[in-house]
Design goal:
3 helices, mainly alpha
């Protein structure tokens, strides 16, 4: 018998595995996560935020 056929016959038919569909779903989730993080990083890089000083701190500095 061919070695590949022997390996296929040795697999337990009652064992459930994720298979190729599970791998594709996991890969799609990984790619989607990478894409959304890249897009978020790009969007947050465009933000120009300058915090206004606290008015109470300005009053203390003037005195």
């Amino acid at each position: 018998m061919h070695p590949a056929a022997t390996a296929l016959l040795a697999l337990d038919q009652n064992k459930v595995t994720p298979g190729i569909l599970g791998f594709l779903v996991f890969a799609a989730l990984g790619a989607g996560t990478w894409w959304i993080l890249k897009a978020m990083n790009r969007s947050l890089g465009k933000v120009d935020f300058v915090e206004e000083p606290d008015p109470a701190a300005l009053e203390d500095a003037k005195q």
